[in-house]
Amino acid sequence: MTTRIAIIGGGTGGLCLAQGLRKAGVDVSVHERSRTRTERLQGYRVHINPHGSAALHECLPPELWERFLATTGTTSGAFTFVTERLKELMVIDSELTWSPDPASNHHSVSRISLHQVLSAGLDGVLHHGKEFAGYRREGEVVVCEFADGSTVEADLVIGADGANSRVREQFLPGAVRVDTEIVAIAGKHPLTEEARKRLPARLTDGPSMVIPRTGAGLFSAPHELNGALSVNDETADYDPVLFDNTASYLMWAFAADNRRYPDHLSSLDGEALRTLVLDLIDGWDPAFKELVAGSPAGSVSRLPIFTSKPVEPWPTGNITLLGDAIHSMTPFRGIGANTALRDAQLLCRNLVAARETGAVRPAIADYEQRMRDYGFAAVRDSERSARRFVSRNRAARTMARGMFRFFQAVPPLKRKVFSDLGDS
Hints:
alpha/beta; FAD/NAD(P)-binding domain
């Protein structure tokens, strides 16, 4: 049986699925609205957890899996929780989360590098300049229509077109995303030898979570490139700071609820956003002010935080959804991309198995049921973490800081409580 599969959207989940299906010899095409590969470059790092690593290992051809590993960051320091005065609350040593098997380990990777790897080798499969306009049904066939007037016929359509999915909008109009009223401001500090001398090792060697007494927080993480395959596209028209893919950097993100920000926040450029964060962290340890002040204005961006709401089960058909198109979540646990990769792995595995049996609908139904379970559980966990991160409840934050200190003082309890971070 031959099933023509059309994936709408060339992001992380959609491309991973396409790689897996193509590796298995399935007829698949990807339709991406950007006109060129570099239009959708994103300039920050992404944390790949064991779920994401397993998905990439299973779906990518061996040579692309090796290329992915060659582009990951080399930093493997401990994850540290600190106060705004850089006082240690708790340290999660890398031994708690490290695995000798790369396919079940944690990785830091540039979003640019990840997209380059996932796009590689998809000539004739990945089609750019295809802005999805809608679909219509002709019997059992779904006809996808694009803004340029072209169409493609498919036996199965997979909406992987991100948080503002047009496929979802038509297919499940009741599925909505809501504004959390939390806003993050993120930037990148070049991780040079000079920066290493100025900044404390606690920030440059591994991820840090800052938990101040007031209702805000800051996360930072180094991304140290090994230089093997991390290259820019010289033909691309992008900001040379935000989208530089050849130099190591220290990424940071400050977040608070929108009551902490001025009303005109959306109109501020990178320089003004950087100044605003410096004002908001006044009184913090000078290292944090150095981190923010040393980030080029072109690397500083405003990131409003939205989250999806759970969706009731729908009748399984020949249209389904993947990744942010169905369960978009806040970035506060770093699991959005990994959940999309998990979707891709599961759906690919089910569809390849169904090729032998012809039971495509049951394969999709199984995927949808399992995806809704773990996907919306991740959404809930992510939103809960976001609310705690920006909580204005001083007593609760004081209690949290005390809890971290307690875990740090009792290592066996810390190992028991945080041993599951391998799946986070």
